[in-house]
């Protein structure tokens, strides 16, 4: 049977994780003595795996930020389809990050920018080969797997075909990723330090479970995901810990 996330561990850590989240994250509508210009603003949707990657990266680098929930699903509530948001992100997708007086779009671009401008807790190893391996894994997930099961693609397929489509392409990508991790991984995707690759892995495994992908053949992927699932920063960034998460899912 597919391995499941240890939900009891998630629940027992909820109070600690929520406090961690409050320390670094606030809704853009909340008040603070710190000016809005001093803190990055992340346009995020709770269930977006791309937004999740950036939340993890910001958390790992201990960068406080404001979060602007941006609904992708309900047209009558969907800020991302407004002209105002089009000026923020011409693709009208999430994430977008306002930082250093500029706006950056695309999760991988944002993570690289954070790593290049905030060197603390690096997301890329110093060793050139390890850096290349991290980038390889990032590309496998962000270019070779996630786009094929993205909401925009599945909407065109329709409900009946979308589940089988997502299962096929995630499984195909995971077969390749499992082989890469067999050679590159230690405790985490590349060696024993958390990297940008891990920021991408956890949201993609969540997607795999959401689409009911059988993970039995992907022992290394599951092992690393379970290890990261116990990390307080990863827990605080989980979709079910986000301010725009529906109440029925929150903290589950």
Automatic annotation (TrEMBL):
GO annotation, cellular component aspect: mitochondrion
Keyword tags: Phenylalanine catabolism, Tyrosine catabolism
Lineage: superkingdom: Eukaryota
Cofactor: glutathione
Domain GST N-terminal: start-end pairs: 38-122
Pathway: Amino-acid degradation; L-phenylalanine degradation; acetoacetate and fumarate from L-phenylalanine: step 5/6
GO terms of molecular function: glutathione transferase activity; maleylacetoacetate isomerase activity
Reaction catalysed by this enzyme: 4-maleylacetoacetate = 4-fumarylacetoacetate
PROSITE patterns: GST_CTER, GST_NTER
EC number, UniProt record: 5.2.1.2
Domain GST C-terminal: 127-247
CDD domains documented for this protein: GST_C_Zeta, GST_N_Zeta
Gene Ontology biological-process entries: glutathione metabolic process; L-phenylalanine catabolic process; L-tyrosine catabolic process
Classification via NCBIfam families: maiA
Family from the record: Belongs to the GST superfamily. Zeta family.
Record-given protein name: maleylacetoacetate isomerase
Species whose genome carries this gene: Drosophila mojavensis (Fruit fly)
Designated gene of the protein: Dmoj\GI23597
């Amino acid at each position: 049977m597919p391995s499941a996330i240890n939900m009891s561990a998630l629940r027992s850590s909820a109070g600690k994780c929520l406090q961690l989240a409050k320390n670094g994250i606030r809704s853009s509508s909340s008040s603070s003595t710190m000016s809005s210009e001093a803190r990055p603003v992340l346009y995020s949707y709770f269930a977006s795996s791309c937004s999740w990657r950036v939340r993890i990266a910001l958390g790992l680098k201990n960068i406080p930020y404001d979060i602007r929930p941006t609904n992708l699903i309900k047209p009558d509530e969907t800020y991302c389809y407004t002209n105002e948001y089009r000026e923020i992100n011409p693709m009208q997708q999430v994430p977008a990050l306002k930082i250093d007086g500029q706006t950056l779009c695309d999760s991988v671009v944002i993570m690289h920018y954070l790593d290049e401008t905030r060197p603390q807790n690096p997301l890329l190893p110093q060793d050139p080969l390890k850096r290349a391996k991290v980038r390889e894994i990032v590309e496998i997930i962000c270019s070779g797997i996630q786009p094929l099961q993205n909401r925009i693609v599945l909407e065109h397929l329709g409900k009946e075909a979308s589940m089988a489509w997502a299962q096929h392409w995630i499984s195909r990508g995971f077969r390749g990723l499992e082989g890469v991790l067999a050679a590159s991984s230690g405790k985490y995707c590349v060696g024993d330090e958390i990297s940008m690759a891990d920021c991408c892995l956890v949201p993609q495994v969540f997607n795999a479970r959401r689409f009911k992908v059988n993970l039995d053949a992907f022992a290394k992927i599951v092992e690393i995901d379970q290890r990261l699932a116990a990390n307080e920063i990863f827990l605080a960034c989980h979709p079910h810990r986000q301010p725009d998460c529906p109440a029925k899912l929150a903290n589950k």
